[in-house]
Amino acid sequence: MPSLLEVNGLTAAYGATEVLHGVSFGLETGRITAVLGANGAGKTTTLRALCQMVRTGGSVLFDGQQLVGRATEEVVRLGVAHVPDGRGTFTALSVEENLRLGAHVRRDKDRVADDVAKMYARFPRLGERRHQQAGTLSGGEQQMLAISRALMLRPKLLLLDEPSFGLAPLIVAEIFRILRSLNGDDGVSMLLVEQNARLALELADQAYL
After folding, report:
1. H/E/C letters for each residue in 24-42?
2. 113 CB burial (10 A radius; 0-12, 13-18, 19+)
3. Could you report how far apart the first and last alpha carbons of the chain are, in Å?
4. Three-state DSSP class for 43?
5. Which of 9, 51, 86, 195 has the most beta carbons within 10 angstroms of its beta carbon?
6. Element (H, E) at 146
7. What does the pLDDT look like over 23-38, one tens digit per residue?
8. How far apart are CA 151 and CA 119, in angstroms?
């Protein structure tokens, strides 16, 4: 498999405080890679650094293009979608407005409605609640919405930060089943940050600790 993401000597800092110190790893096209570690180990910061949301150094090659030094919006346009911890939904907007917002950088606007329909087919609960305010959804439904909104970008790489956090086991099992399907059927590459090592290792092709 060709390499989709090559990270070498990645550093990241909040203000004057450096919190990542020379992290290196890789991810192959069409594969799921997990990043495991305790609280405070830098997992979330690693995802933020890939998206250029924090001050970074080193090298991040995505599909052959250097990400370090780019604006976050440029990273998104290149095909990197981020599902942050805590869902990150726009609570005052409806489900459908959240989904359409996920496609705002796309140029093929005529195909957005088709992809919204695909999200409802994949996540039927969202279809039932399409006009409902996102802030009134359950935690599991908000996580499904966050994943769907990221997929509206048609990303080459999906970054997932603790998708199981705070959710009931049955909901977690459903979400991970859908992630497996997205990878197997649609070929979406994923970088998964997760504290539940068992879940992550069952899903991932490889893992970094």
Report:
1. EEEEECCCEEEECCCCCCC
2. exposed
3. 22
4. helix
5. 51
6. helix 139-151
7. 999 999 999 999 998 8
8. 8
